[in-house]
What does this fold into?
Amino acid sequence: MSRYGRFAHDALKNNQLTPKKRFGQNFLVHRETAEAIVRAGKVTASDTIVEVGVGLGALTLPLAAAANHVYGYEIDSGIVRFHEQQKDLPENVTLIHQDILKADFNEIVQKCGAGLKILANLPYSISNPFIFKLIDNAHLIKSATIMLQKEVADRLSAEVNTKDYGVPTILLASVATVDRKLTLKPAEFHPRPKVDSVVITIDFTGGPKQTGPYDYTLFKHIVRSTFNQRRKTVINTLSRANLFGVTHKEDKKTNKELAHRALTDAGIAPSARPETLLFSDFVRLAVCVEKLQKEAK
Ligand SMILES: C[S@@+](CC[C@H](N)C(=O)[O-])C[C@H]1O[C@@H](n2cnc3c(N)ncnc32)[C@H](O)[C@@H]1O
It folds into this structure.
């Protein structure tokens, strides 16, 4: 066992801390790996970093050595108590006992300054809701370098027309670009997870080329409704997505006609399946649906 691994093991044992599955507690056991994640995040001496899930501090310490300041969020009161008793975190680390999913990103910006830089060995238990939180707060974030279960990273960086391509891929592509950095084996953690992990950097400054204005809420609704039934054709799901204010049963035909028009106006084959459509196709579709909605008023 590495020195880091022995440290994690002993720290947990001596403080009656059992790794909690519900908090996704798989602690890093190699210092070099933690340092590689900091390098992947391109952390510089002037950076203020937001770390999600401080744990025993495996990533926090190299982050604190490389950055100006680290605001570390941790949900587990046992771990927070451990750091308070040990006083082991450097002075430029502020430990915040809070569930990151409940945190207000505007308040985090007030603490950390504009353009958040986030690093995390992300607890697997929150990876999906956390990604959607990042998407919703994209305008406040510069980059997020995060470690995820490989299958989640595969979904976020999936190519069009593959089984992994879906709602998270498209919504993330609408605000950012994704770059895969490292693949880590289960032996990098204590306790060992069952699957490989991947570190990705999500760059919120390198989002898609300007597509012109479109209704983002409508775009999201269309993406979610079509992928809800990913085996069906887009004309099928779009006609049932309550887009055109036609609710009477007998007006099924009208819904289908309007959906057909929106799709052909957007240059999309009505018989297409959602996984064959690019982010830019969904944007064009949202623009055409909005135009028809306005005409119908
Ligand atoms: C995978 S461990 C990583 C710990 C440490 N950074 C490391 O690399 O060894 C995830 C950490 O996130 C914490 N955590 C889990 N859910 C959280 C949440 N919703 N908000 C803040 N921290 C959370 C866990 O208690 C745990 O310490």
About this structure: The beta strands are 27-28, 48-52, 69-74, 93-97, 116-121, 141-149, 177-184, 189-190, 197-203. The longest helix spans residues 279-296. The chain has twelve helices and nine strands. The longest strand covers residues 141-149.
